[in-house]
Every structure is written in C-alpha cells, then in structure tokens.
Write a structure and sequence with these properties.
The complex is a heterodimer. Chain A is mainly beta. Chain A contains one helix and six strands; from the N terminus they run ββββββα. The chains are: A mainly beta, B alpha+beta.
C-alpha cells in the first residue's frame, strides 16, 4: 500500500550529484536483502505539495533478471523510499 | 496602461494538499479528491467541524464549517482525515514561491489565496488569460494541486472571478463584463456581504448584486451608514486598494482554546488562562513588541459570548503580568456558567522592548520575570515547547501552552509515514 522505507548506500559527487549504489530491504521472511543498482535510467526532481524529493528510476539485478525499480530520496528528511510496484506505470507516465 | 490583477485560490486547499501528500509521499492509491472526503477536527475534543471537503462531498451538500455529525448524516460514506498543519505551511510556501516567480508584487491574502499584480507583464507571458493558464498549469504539474485564477483590473473583481466555477479554471471579470457575469449573482455572493447583511438587503427588496449596484446610494447610507458605501462600491466593481507585497504589522496578538470539557471552576479556568498567556506572550516577545490592552473572552457551554478588557499601567510582554490582568478580568466577567472556550487577546502594541514605564512598586520583580521569560523562550526554541513548563502543569490534563495549533494537529499519526 505505502511506499516502503529502505536503506540505501549512495555516492555524492563534487557537483552535488546523487547516485544510489545499493539498496537493502526486508523480504517476505523478514530477512534483509541487498541489491546492487546496476544503472540509473533517469532521475528527476519533484516538489509535490512543496516537499522536495529526488526521484530515481533504476535497474537492479534480481538473481538472473534485471528489474526496474523506482526509489525516492526525501531531501529534507534524508530518507529513501521504494515506490510501490503497482505505482510504477503511472509514475513512468508522469 | 490598465492595471491587471490576478487572484489565485487553491481548490479545497487543505484537502488537496492532504490528497497530494498521500498520493506522492505516502504512496496511497486513492485520491481523496475523487471520493467524498473531508479534513475534519477531533470530535472527542469538541473540535468537530469540517475544515475542507472534496468536490464529490460537495455534491452531497457537505459544507465547510458543518459539524461532523451533520456531515455524516448528509453523506454516510464520507472519508474523514485529521488536519496536518505542518504540511499546509510547506505547501502554501511552495505555492507562494511559484507566484513570486511570475510577478514581483504578490500579496498573500491567506494560507491558500494570493493576489498578483500582473500589470505590464504582457510582453513576458502574452495576454492575461495565457499567463494565468501558464501559472495554473505550472502549479498543477510541479506541486500536484489545482488552483482557480480570477483576472481583472482590481482586487475585488479578481477575487469574485476566481470564485465562479471550480476547479482548475481561469476566469476573467473585467469591468465591461460585470453586467453579464457579476450582476446576476445573488447578493450574498458579494465579498463583504455576510448573513446579517443579506437578510437586511432582502428586506429592502435587493436580491442580486446588480440590484444592489443600481440602488440609490442614499438609501444604502440610511440603512448601513459607511458600510453601505463600501458594498455599493463593491457591487459596482470599484475597489481602490492596491496589491501590496509588504506584510502589515500585527495590531494585536491573541490566542483562544476550546476546552475538551466544560470548565466550572475558577482555578481551572485561571490555569487555562495561564497556558494561553504563555503562548500569547511568547508571540509578543518573538516579535519584540509589548501590549498595553489585555482582553479576556469567554464562550459558555450554551454558546454565549462575553468579553472584557483593561488597559495596563504600562505596556508589557511578561507572562505573569498578562496572566494577572487576565485573572482580574476573568473574576469581573465570569458568572459561574460552565465555560467551553477561553481566549486572551492583547492590543495597542508598542514596538521595541526598550521603553518601559518604571513602576515603583514592582520594579525588581519585573526585571527578574522578564529575564526568566527570555531564558524559558530560549530553552523552548532549542529543545521544544515541552522541555520546560510551570510546575502547576505537571501531571495536569491541561496542556501548558494552549491556543494556536496544537502539536497533534501539526503532524497526524500515519504510522510508518515519512516526514
């Protein structure tokens, strides 16, 4: 239902560009799983309701499959969330 | 060159902002704007009114200001969400920032309304309607909520225009369009005409704004005095006020609180007055002003209003002094009927804290209390309002800083929500 809060390792370069590298979340069995972010397809800044967010669309490896996920970085609170999957299509259109 | 004024009004502001927050920040699927929904207070604390409702809820006849029980009767499936004032501040600020990119002269009229002076921007954005649509669409795509924009040559007509048809629309109401668009409307739609005036006007046989505009001014003067001239001018689309981006200085500072239970004891009421004095005086000190007049207002459980005021010997911003004055007023005013709502209002503010009439009898005490207040303010600013409180409020159901927006209404409990 909700966006899921996740742990992220990210690099911040000298130009202030943010690049998420690894994402870690709980699976159905409450075990922590870490995924490497292979590449970032695109990113954009959002400001819905006046809350600034960095939006990243990226590819991760799930076993042998490449999977596209969307994650958001909350600039004010420094939290990362995984955008819920069913939301993906509408997010891509937006 | 003719003046050009925009009035920008967020469509059901509190509800829209909450809907956008839930969709984009929390990731919920349902858009509150598409279902019958409302932002409402807490019925248990007797803050039980509708603060904003969605367009589908409007179709059921739910109005802003209705009680929760009335609204539920009109629309049993109404989805109600608690208020979230921190979010409203954030959204309002982002909204005003976009407006300031379009015009150097923006007057914030309320949390969700503003006037923009767009005179002479035709070379920048093209005609007024094009500019307004650009503004409206930019807000919708960037911030995710919709606005109505009214266009005219003065503030009054622009405001009337933004109220025509909602949501997400641009309307013009230039003086030459008044006859067609404004005059056919019922007279109570006119800005400044409330319930009481509407009744009086109906008694005079005036039902539409057009009829008011064509009424002999002397008749209106005879019935309404100065106010008659104002509504006559408004009905004719005359408004000389200018869009000003300077915030006028506060003339008075006051806070009031509706208590969750009926208060029938003087010492409990005085404790609530102390908690109100805390917040009012904190605000006075934050703006470095002092107040000369203190007023206390009471609303009884039967909704009778009463108030009483006094002028202090000299201006002050000390919590204890204001509280002492409030208690004196309260003793004079209260007849023992149960109290629902209490308020403290201060006025005749003096700027700057340096000038003070020395009082021979409590000079030392004032100095010490004032120093204490400053320290308490600093501690609260750094560690939060609840970090330091008067001992009387310990283990007491009365919150020690009443009035304004209580902490639980700033951030609702979303469980695992962000923010």
């Amino acid at each position: 239902m909700f966006h899921m809060p996740v742990d992220v390792i990210a690099t911040f370069n000298v130009q202030g560009k943010i690049k998420p590298n690894y994402i870690r979340l709980e699976d159905e069995n409450h075990a922590l799983q870490t995924y490497k972010i292979e590449n970032i397809v695109f990113s954009r800044e959002e400001n819905f309701a006046g809350i600034p967010v960095m939006f990243f669309c990226c590819n991760v490896m799930l076993g042998d499959n490449m999977q596209m996920i969307n994650i958001k970085y909350h600039i004010k609170t420094h939290q990362w969330v995984l955008v819920h999957k069913e939301d993906k299509i509408s997010q891509m259109k937006g | 060159m003719d003046n050009l004024v925009f009035h920008i009004d967020v469509n059901s502001a509190f509800l829209s902002w909450e809907a956008v927050y839930r969709l984009h920040i929390l990731g919920e699927k349902t858009d509150l704007r598409e279902i019958p929904s409302a932002v409402a207070g807490d019925i248990k604390k007797r803050h039980g009114i509708i603060l904003a409702r969605s367009m589908p809820a409007k179709k059921y006849g739910v109005r802003t200001g209705d009680t929760i029980s009335d609204a539920k009767r009109l629309c049993p499936d109404l989805v109600m969400v608690p208020p979230h004032y921190d979010l409203y501040e954030t959204s309002s600020k982002a909204f005003m920032e976009i407006l300031r990119e379009f015009s150097p002269c923006v007057e914030q009229y309320s949390v969700d309304e503003a006037y923009c002076d767009m005179t002479g921007t035709i070379g920048l954005y093209g005609s007024a309607v094009v500019a307004a649509n650009l503004m409206k669409d930019r807000i919708a795509s960037e911030l995710g909520f919709t606005v109505n924009i009214g266009i005219s040559t003065n503030k009054l007509l622009a405001k009337m225009a933004s109220d025509f048809k909602k949501p997400n629309l641009v309307h013009t109401l230039f003086p030459e369009e008044m006859e067609k668009k404004l005059w056919k409307l019922p007279v109570d739609e006119l800005f400044y005409v409330g319930h009481a005036t509407k009744k009086k006007l109906h008694a005079l046989g005036i039902h539409t704004i057009g009829e008011l505009a064509r009424t002999d001014l002397d008749i209106l003067r005879a019935h309404f005095k100065k106010y008659g001239e104002v509504i006559f001018a408004f009905a004719n689309g005359i408004d000389v006020s200018v869009v000003s981006n300077e915030i006028p200085a506060n003339k008075g500072y006051g806070n009031s609180t509706t208590i969750a239970f009926d208060v029938d004891q003087a010492n409990a009421a005085k404790m609530i007055l102390l908690s109100l004095a805390e917040t009012v005086c904190t605000r006075l000190r934050a703006d470095s002003v002092m107040a000369t007049v203190v007023a206390v207002s009471i609303v009884t459980s039967e909704f009778h209003h009463a108030s009483h005021q006094l002028t202090l010997f000299s201006a002050t911003d000390t919590t204890n002094e204001i509280h002492r004055a409030a208690c004196r007023l309260f003793d004079d005013l209260w007849d023992g009927t149960p109290i629902r709502n209490l308020g403290i209002h201060t006025s005749k503010v003096v700027h700057g804290t340096s000038v003070r009439q020395l009082n021979l009898f409590d000079m030392n005490r004032y100095e010490r209390l004032s120093k204490l207040d400053t320290v308490v303010d600093t501690v609260r600013e750094r560690y939060g309002d609840d970090s330091i409180m008067r001992a009387i409020f310990l283990n007491n159901p009365i919150y020690h800083m009443a009035g304004g927006i209580p902490p639980e209404k700033r951030k609702p409990n979303y469980g695992e929500g962000i923010k």
